[in-house]
Specification:
mainly alpha; Serine Threonine Protein Phosphatase 5, Tetratricopeptide repeat; two-stranded antiparallel sheet; 61% helix; GLE1; protein transport; coiled coil
Length: 262
């Protein structure tokens, strides 16, 4: 509920502002240690990314409440936003977007980590699990760029707004596609913030959608094997339907004004 989110937001904001905060029966404050604020900013940013790869990857709708709190905190405490991006880019290089190339002398294990895979005792996580985590983080990122904390100062600009989403999309379409991953990332991104980008960029956005359908999807097809067509098929039908109806649906789980009245 909106009231519950406000509680969470106020607690985080108070902690970052140096006020004493009650947690688990004790009072804590960042002023208790010279590096207290730095530590809290770091751990908080890390936690938001973990929500993306965990919570959001399993429950897509949860991207919006998490993103709106982060967006508001980012506005008041830019350091948290900077560190969040650093964590996000390290865990999910595709949020840059960037496909790391393997350099000479880099071990297979190290390279897998650079690509975002989790490696434990030389065992690489399964592809399905990897894709799910990347999907969660991209969905969280796509939710952040379009949301603002409703009780903040509306005068200033969004600290990381839709122009970053537009840039992400343009850069993504300039990269050579990868099987499995590219189709999923594009679909996740367009499902979550396609509607907001459509409203902001109008004709330019529709030109981009046409480019995806006519030129980019065939390039994804060229690198995709028969067993990896699932996500590509979903992307294809999503883009086709949007172009036919000249409309991008609102994302499932978006926070409506009534949400904040509860």
């Amino acid at each position: 509920s909106g009231s519950k989110l406000r509680e969470v937001f106020d607690k985080i904001n108070n902690l970052l502002s140096g006020k004493p905060v009650q947690t688990e029966g004790q009072t804590v404050s960042v002023t208790q240690h010279p590096q207290g604020l730095e530590f809290v900013c770091y751990k908080l940013a890390e936690k938001f990314v973990k929500h993306g790869e965990g919570e959001v990857s399993f429950h897509h709708d949860s991207a919006f409440p998490i993103a709106v709190v982060l967006s508001g905190i980012w506005e008041l405490h830019p350091r948290v936003g900077d560190i969040f991006l650093a964590h996000l880019h390290k865990k999910c290089p595709y949020s840059v977007p960037f496909y790391p190339a393997r350099k000479e002398g880099t071990s297979v294990e190290e390279y897998q980590r650079m690509l975002g895979y989790e490696v434990h005792d030389s065992k690489v996580e399964e592809q399905d699990h990897f894709l799910k985590r990347m999907s969660g983080m991209i969905r969280l990122y796509a939710a952040i760029i379009q949301l603002r904390w409703p009780y903040g100062n509306k005068q200033g600009a969004h600290p990381h707004g839709l122009s970053y989403g537009w840039r992400w999309l343009a850069q993504m379409l300039n990269l050579e596609p990868l099987a499995d991953l590219t189709a999923m990332l594009l679909l996740d991104f367009l499902e979550v913030c396609g509607n907001a980008l459509m409203k902001q960029y109008g004709v330019q956005f529709w030109k981009t959608m046409f480019f995806i359908q006519k030129f980019y999807i065939p390039r994804i097809e060229a690198v995709t094997s028969a067993g990896q067509m699932g996500c590509l098929s979903r992307l294809k039908s999503f883009v086709q339907k949007c172009l036919q109806e000249e409309e991008i649906p609102l994302p499932k789980g978006i926070l409506t004004p009534s949400f904040w009245r509860i």
